[in-house]
Specification:
alpha+beta, five-stranded antiparallel β-sheet, 5 strands, HIT family, subunit A, 3 helices, 141 residues, single chain
């Protein structure tokens, strides 16, 4: 396995500002935050992609992220909303290949946002949506 910074953090071989830890999940502050309080929630077991992650642990990641989002609002820090962002794969802009869920505190005028592609405003016909849904449903088994 290639050296993984998040695995190193999970085993205390690298420093992190931890906000939550249990036997399966670790949540710590991002070193390049979008806004103060930007937290990464990771499974302690290595999984480069979502497809490699056990569904139960994935659920645990999300549950911890929900608790972090609630804590951000209660903390007194500037947080009028939150974004959960998980990049899965290089095409999705994943930079660290260990599953991680960003919990980003948001407020009006913070300058962060999403850029949509040129086809975003074009609504496909129902038939096209139905065909796509069938492909995904079949692949789910």
């Amino acid at each position: 396995m290639v050296e993984c910074v998040f695995c190193n953090i999970a085993r205390n071989a690298e420093p992190a500002s931890v906000v939550y830890s249990n036997e399966k999940i670790l949540a710590f502050l991002d070193i390049q935050p979008v806004n103060a309080g930007h937290v990464l929630v990771i499974p302690k077991v290595h999984a480069a992609r979502l497809s490699e992650l056990d569904e139960e642990i994935g659920g645990d990641v999300f549950r911890v992220a929900m608790r972090v989002a609630t804590a951000l609002r209660r903390s007194g820090m500037r947080c009028e909303g939150t974004n959960f962002v998980l990049a899965d794969g290089e095409a999705a802009s994943q930079e660290v290949f260990h599953v991680h869920l960003h919990v980003i505190p948001r407020f009006n005028g913070d300058g962060f946002g999403f850029k949509f592609g040129s086809r975003y405003g074009i609504r496909p016909k129902r038939e096209e949506l139905d065909k796509t849904a069938l492909k995904i449903k079949a692949a789910m088994g």
